[in-house]
Design a protein that fits this description.
alpha+beta; 7-stranded mixed sheet; 7 strands
Length: about 140
Amino acid sequence: MSYIDTRNALFTGALSGLSVPVAMPNISFNHDNLDAWVALYFIPATSQSLGKTKASGDERRGLMQASVYIKADSVNYDNLQLQIIDQLTSILWNGSVLVSNGQEVHILESTANEGSVNGSYFKRDLTINYLAITQRI
């Protein structure tokens, strides 16, 4: 299978659990006047061969990052942001398997950082580590 099937499995899973607007790579997105939004990133990291023939597969590992933005200086602290992260991890939980076009993607771990102010927003990243065993043909 392919990188596109791996990305589609991850993004489709993430989108199914979100209730806020989502910015996707290489698509125009205007976040002005939004109280909350998420940006998704697909980050392939390593590829290990599982054999030397064309019929062998590859073990691909990488990350999907979901950057969750809320208005800075909110009266509700970061409650909305943490609720959005909970929505994502309810779909992309450790040990879950997502599928697109027959490609299985295993969620190995999800970790949120402490967050920081980014312009007029407070941003916190959720990093999801994945594993996909892909076929070459």
